[in-house]
Amino acid sequence: MRYRALACDYDGTIAHHGRVDDKTLNALQRMRASGRKLLLVTGRQLDDLMSVFPEVQLFDRVVAENGALLYDPTTRTEQMIADAPPPEFARELQRRGVDPVAQGRVIVATWEPHDATVFQVIHDMQLELQVIFNKGAVMVLPSGINKAVGLKRSLETLKLSLHDTVGVGDAENDHAFLTACECSVAVANALDSIKSRVDLVTEGHHGAGVIELINGMLSNDLADLNVRLTRHDLLIGQGEPASSEIKLPAYDGGVLIAGPSGAGKTTVTTALLERLCECEYQFAVIDPEGDYHDFPNAIALHGTDARALVDETLQVLDRPTQNVVVTLIDLRLEDRPAFLQMLLPLLLQLRANTGRPHWIVIDEAHHLLPSTWESTEATLPAELKNFVMVTIHPDHVAPTMLRLVETMIAVGRDAQTTINEFTTARGVSPIKLPQQKKADAALSWFVRLGQQPILLRGAKPVTERLRHRRKYAEGELPEDRSFFFRGPEGKLNLRAQNLATFLQLADGVDDDTWRFHLQERDVSRWFKTKIKDSELAADAAEVEREKDLEPNESRARIREAVERRYTVPP
Fold first, then answer.
1. Contacts (Cβ under 8 Å, ≥6 apart) of 105
2. Of 184, 400, 424, 474, which sits most exposed with the smallest number of CB within 10 A?
3. Do strands 183-186 and 165-169 pair parallel, antiparallel, or not at all (unpaired)?
4. pTM above the 0.85 mark?
5. Regarding beta strands 387-391 and 359-362, do their DSSP bridges make them parallel or antiparallel, or are they unpaired?
6. Which regions of 459-566 does DSSP assign to beta strands (E)?
């Protein structure tokens, strides 16, 4: 289910001449019975609304006074989200001949043509107020308050977000909240200025249009709109050579980001996470090696207690406005797949209940979801949308997960090999990439199954990701990325799984072993190919070239270079 809430305007939308007919009420009852939430979003004052609409209890929340007042019909509690204008404001309007002047908990309202006087009084009194129009009504509210603000606040109390919501309205003051909703709808009687900006215009007027919308939501979750609903799509780069924008659908099947180590997978993924933040989609990242631990728009969690880490993750995601990065570097390598098997069903259950997290990102998918992994109905629903897997080896990922992939981003110069691994493992027809005149490591291939591959220059992350400090300084790199002190005769087998261990072992090995690895350029090679830090590798190479350095001096130089870039625990 994509949409878990319906937000309705009152006058001109569910109501005609101020009243809601029985057919519309029945449709609203069917919508609520489906488990979806109903929110009423109106410019009316609450007392006025309840006098003409006693069935207000049908709605889970009411956003009244054009966003300034929130009401819970179940508990009958009210919440003002802004301070009312000073009492002198309404009195001054009346003194200058404005009539009528209606006052709510926050809103002050009148009618045209008194708008000029309203503006003049706001100016003369130097008040921070705004004026909103609605079919001749002139509504005065604190600056920044509108239906979108009130709706977002109300949805948060229901553990939902605007991305889980369809909004329907008809007039000028509905524009803000309609635009904010994932899907915006106008009834047929709406103003042309509203109908020209929404995703769908109903054939029916007023309540008949709302009934039509509800029937569509209940029958197929408005799936017919998905192809047209592109305004939320996520920009991930520019096509080459035409420089057209390449976007990822905001609601889609699985995404696979694949390529060799150091080819740019983390850069592509980081840019995607930034787009999700900009669009306020909630995400959860499962991060085995600490690549995203310092991502600035998410709460980073780590720890050695797997159950506690799962509980903390769900606590963070309980708030629709919070993202989470779950870093697994404190868990043993062999325990990490089991952790994901514990967490993933709970994330999917949360999504089934609330629609969130909107995106799930699984790094090192070949390790966390290996080819031997088998899903059950409890761990994997029949339809899984909006997930990303990042991997070096597509053919090492569980076939069950590969079958859900609809989009692949292949990074690195040898993208054809990466794509071949995916198509072979998934069992689909080979995808042949067009011949490139010149390989460019900065380019990737964007492959939508069933469509021609597109050469892509990925969007660069705005946030300069910090070097993988925690991962490389104190995490646990796999064996194929660890450094091994073996010595000139291969008698040792001392594994350094991170920089801290490397420095400790470097201080403890004998001088001959240390000299041997410097002479073989092993240190700079490890820094460059496994730690993926070219600057650190260059510093180490300079030490390796100075043959006359004493072992203690060369050790000190390497240590200084490492500690200058990384926070290494004592």
1. 45, 46, 65, 68, 69, 78, 80, 84
2. 424
3. parallel
4. no
5. parallel
6. 483-485, 494-496
